[in-house]
């Protein structure tokens, strides 16, 4: 009973804070609440994810796929580039601050600089038709990560899930 009351209150708040649909904003006011694509009832849920015409035209996945394609290509070009450890320097200061000098520190020079450091056989695959290089274990299921970076020699896997608003 309490959960239903909370849901009703949240629904009322959501309706009060609802943003007007794009056509309403553009033209000032819209009396006809139908979707321009499918002529169904135009609600926020319908506009964001439920319009069958927009779904069949790929309008919901187009932007996400473009971002995913760009990320996958950047990662794919960066995988072969190794970042040699740069020498790190420490600034030493006397107790009173009268004298300062720069010295080389050996403690941080062997640390990894990024996720891809440490091996050179990374393979990149993305959940896109033109990037379908997932390993067989992943290809068998429909539950695929958006981007998968894996190293066969070290048996490391980095999975990326992308959310694009």
From TrEMBL:
Keywords: Nucleotidyltransferase, RNA-directed DNA polymerase, Transferase. One of its GO terms (molecular function) is RNA-directed DNA polymerase activity. This is Reverse transcriptase. It comes from Elysia marginata.
């Amino acid at each position: 009973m309490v959960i239903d009351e909370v849901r009703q209150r949240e629904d009322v708040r959501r309706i009060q804070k609802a943003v007007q649909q794009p056509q309403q904003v553009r033209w000032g006011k819209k009396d006809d609440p139908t979707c321009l694509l499918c002529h169904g009832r135009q609600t926020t849920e319908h506009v964001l994810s439920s319009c069958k015409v927009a779904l069949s035209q790929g309008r919901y996945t187009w932007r996400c796929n473009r971002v995913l394609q760009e990320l996958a290509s950047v990662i794919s070009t960066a995988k072969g580039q190794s970042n040699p450890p740069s020498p790190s320097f420490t600034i030493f200061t006397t107790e009173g601050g009268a004298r300062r000098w720069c010295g080389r520190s050996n403690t941080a020079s062997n640390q990894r600089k990024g996720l891809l450091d440490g091996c050179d056989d990374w393979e990149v695959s993305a959940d896109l038709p033109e990037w379908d290089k997932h390993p067989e274990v992943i290809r068998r299921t429909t539950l695929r990560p958006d981007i998968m970076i894996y190293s066969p020699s070290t048996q490391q896997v980095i999975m990326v899930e992308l959310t694009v608003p």
